[in-house]
Write a structure and sequence with these properties.
GO molecular function (chains A, B): 2-dehydro-3-deoxygalactonokinase activity
Number of helices of chain A: 10
Number of domains of chain A: 2
Distance between the termini of chain A: 13 Å
Strand content of chain A: 15-25%
Largest sheet of chain A: 6 strands, mixed
Helix content of chain A: 25-40%
Shape of chain A: globular
Number of strands of chain A: 14
Largest interface: A-B, 50 and 50 residues
Organism (chains A, B): Paroceanicella profunda
Oligomer: homodimer
Protein name (chains A, B): 2-dehydro-3-deoxygalactonokinase
Keywords (chains A, B): Kinase, Plasmid, Transferase
CATH superfamily of the largest domain in chain A: 2-keto-3-deoxy-galactonokinase, substrate binding domain
Strand order of the largest sheet of chain A: 6-12-11-10-13-14
CATH class of the largest domain in chain A: Alpha Beta
Radius of gyration of chain A: 21 Å
CATH architecture of the largest domain in chain A: 2-Layer Sandwich
Chain lengths: 308, 308
């Protein structure tokens, strides 16, 4: 693969994505796998990385920039957190290099909020934010839904603070490992979207009673009040509604929220935020990660595109 | 075993308890096992019951009264719910008899709240309440903690309404099947009780932000703000605090709450309710189940103690 400026890797807990990027940041090739951090040990990271680069015939001297959980303590090599307030365009200055890598590899750090009353960490989202707001004013509130959703308060391109809500993981844990699994086993029904919206409304109207809502999914099914195939929509709506209510309680909701997400999850959060009275400015999460990694690479290797 | 008036069985999802009771309701013998409903099929119930009765040399004509999930649709035989408002001392009038049982067996029904906005069901707790309030005025609010905690509003010995919170099941699901499992894997530390109380306070003070608290258990550990071995206490405190806050939001908290629980869980809820400003009147859950089954038996077989 000629013409590549760098390889960019978003290496999460359960997923691996790699792009070869040209000097303008455009993707030349892509690889995706489920070889996330949680299945690897220290030595395995370099081997997995090289196998994907070889599959794309990447040059032996092509440098690689990595964001995500590969930089966690239990990852490839720990990239210590940058603390809030954190300037997005300076995060790359604190990257680390794994020893014994077959080529130049830089792992970007995450961001920590060292507030004893609201401790929080992110790894990877700071790079998505850098990509989302490259060259623009990111002031306001960004919602980044996922396994661990992040709600990020920004001034310019500085992270002032953030809050994590384990919405995706709570959905999986409650939906698969409690009595609600009976209600979620049915295939999704026609009324699922309406059930989702109704549940968002209930969670927004009375978030302080959230925990009394979950068993009603089961009881409503047993007593014939719930339409078939609505359990998943209701549980999702309760949790996303509760997440938005928590964000509202912590810092208030602005008129417009920047929603960094892809696919069906972007639609769900867009719908839920509208029910909370917010318009959304949508940014694709995949594109933001790629753009953020490219922005970090151009800061790490500012002269490289001239050299090639 | 001579002198037995009846056998009384509390047959739950994951547990089986049987007592032989004399004509005054005092226990003559007891059996406990993990042969709950979830591991049995229709025919298995009778076999399990007879094996425990044989182990106690129970007479062949001793009648048996059963409460709990054995009466669920997927149990031994369905005992259709009695609806709220439900008079506790009349629930036994709606019991069912399994066919082909080797002796007289009566399965007590559960109670349903057929409110489309707050559908709810219980099976077994109605019998504990009958035992707890036999001959007394149970007016007020009863808290019955557990896998599925019940909060029950009573007038006299009538159930006016109730609400289920899946606190025990949520603790297990979030503690074992999310990233919080890392924080809960440590042995409980000295600071766990203080962490529990602090978490109850936070959940009571700001229940609308509950879902933003969970990930802080993990992040607080990573950033060094959480004392070792406090993850379980914090998660428990957040969930119990949220449960009490939900009860407060739904129906208000009276000055005194009747707490029907046993052992360590009774201590935890007593502490948490005190932090919410409530005194507690404590009733042992095991004794309440046994007393409730006896009260149902004397209604089912009013002449039997004279006959023996």
């Amino acid at each position: 693969m000629s013409g590549a400026f760098c390889a960019a890797v978003d290496w999460g807990t359960s997923s691996f994505r790699l792009w070869l990027l040209d000097a303008s940041g455009a993707p030349l090739a892509e690889r995706r796998s489920d070889q996330g951090m949680s299945g690897l040990t220290g030595g395995g990271f370099g081997t997995v990385l090289e196998s994907h680069l070889a599959a794309l015939s990447a040059p032996a001297d092509l440098p690689v920039v990595v964001c995500g959980m590969a930089g966690a303590r239990q990852g490839w090599i720990e990239a210590p957190y940058v603390d809030t307030p954190a300037a997005l365009d300076r995060v790359a200055d604190h990257c680390v290099r794994p020893e014994h890598a077959a080529r130049e590899v830089r792992i970007l750090p995450g961001v920590a909020q060292r507030d004893p009353a609201a401790p929080d960490v992110m790894r990877g989202e700071e790079t998505q934010l850098l990509g989302a707001f490259a060259g623009q004013d990111g002031a306001g509130l960004a919602c980044m839904p996922g396994t661990h959703s992040k709600w990020v308060r920004l001034s310019g391109t500085r992270i002032d603070g953030f809050s994590t809500v384990m919405t995706g993981e709570m959905f999986a844990a409650l939906g698969h490992h409690t009595i609600l699994s009976h209600s979620l086993a049915e295939p999704e029904g026609e009324a699922a979207a309406a059930a989702f919206a109704a549940a968002v409304r209930r969670a927004l109207a009375r978030p302080e009673a959230l925990v009394s809502e979950f068993f009603r999914i089961r009881a409503g099914g047993l007593l014939g009040f719930a339409a078939p195939g609505t359990g998943g929509g209701t549980l999702s709506g309760l949790l996303i509604g509760a997440e938005i209510a928590a964000a509202r309680a912590l810092a208030g909701l602005p008129e417009e929220v920047t929603l960094i997400a892809s696919g069906a999850i972007a639609e769900r959060y867009g719908t839920a935020l509208a029910l909370a009275g917010c318009t959304t400015r949508r940014i694709d999460a995949d594109g933001a990660a790629r753009a953020g990694l490219f922005a970090a690479a151009t800061r790490l290797w500012p002269t490289r595109n001239r050299r090639d």
